[in-house]
Specification:
With about 240 residues, the protein is α/β, with parallel strands linked by helices. It has helices at about 15-20, 30-35, 55-65, 85-90, 105-115, 135-145, 165-175, 200-205; strands at about 1-5, 25-30, 45-50, 70-75, 115, 125, 150-155, 180-185, 195-200, 215, 225, 230.
Length: about 240
């Protein structure tokens, strides 16, 4: 299980690069395979489309049971909204396959670096996708995070079928946060067309995000400084 980071080769960890160099087969969502294919020529590649995550993991396990050294790749980190947990669930108590998880740079961290320093204090990550999590649960988590004054990284903020989910999330956050709360977005982290913007929560409500956007909501102390999003850690006498 290899986390390949946000997309650019230079943002992969050395351990991830070594794992992909050493494996026989690379399995993944076709978008992620396309990101790494040119850097690992001669490998055998297998892909599956969106919503075929279970099939993808079963394929990787079947190849491994045949004695192949398989790298199952995920964007960001394989254990953060990735396939690592599903692989372990499907494997169960089967000792025929040895699983190793290679950490990667998740979007909350790579995106934060583009914006400045938005996560210097306590923060949480919440996905707005309700494919696997009921919206009522997501709404409760958003409400609790805002009430607790956490900085928040929002994954999967919008899609073709969920165009208004970011707007709905902002309405929940506005129960506890002011409209001028400092926020930011990063689109296509580490890929062509990368874009990073700092804005207010009110402006974020009208922003058109997509599945390749990561959203950052500051806490009550977060500032916009020189075009960057900065959350103080709380050092005194600064």
């Amino acid at each position: 299980m290899v986390g390949i980071g946000p997309g650019a080769y230079e943002e992969m960890t050395l351990r991830a690069v070594n794992a992909l160099n050493d494996c026989d087969v690379i399995v993944g969502y076709h978008v992620y395979v396309d990101l790494v294919k040119e850097h690992f020529p001669g490998k055998e590649f297998h892909t599956t489309p969106m919503k075929k995550e279970v099939d993808r993991c079963r394929l990787a396990l079947a190849l491994a049971r045949d004695g192949r050294d398989v790298a199952m790749i995920c964007s960001g980190d394989a254990g953060v909204y990735g396939m690592a947990g599903l692989i372990y669930e499907l494997l169960g108590q089967d000792a025929a396959v040895e699983v190793e998880v290679v950490g990667g740079l998740t979007a909350a961290l790579s995106g934060a670096a583009r914006l400045g320093a938005p996560l210097t204090h306590d923060f949480c990550c919440i996905s707005l996708s309700d494919l696997l999590t009921p919206w009522e649960t997501i709404e409760n988590r958003l409400d609790c995070a805002a009430k607790g004054d956490f900085c928040i990284a929002l994954y999967n903020p919008s899609s073709m079928k969920r165009r208004d989910y970011l707007q709905r999330a902002c309405d929940i956050l506005l129960r506890h946060a002011s409209p001028d709360r400092v926020c930011g977005v990063v689109r296509n982290i580490g890929r062509e067309g990368e874009e990073a913007l700092v804005m207010t929560l009110a402006e974020l409500r009208d922003y058109e995000a997509d599945m390749f956007t990561t959203v950052f909501v500051g806490n009550s102390h977060t500032k916009a400084l020189g075009g960057k999003m900065v959350t103080p850690r709380g050092y005194r006498d600064v």
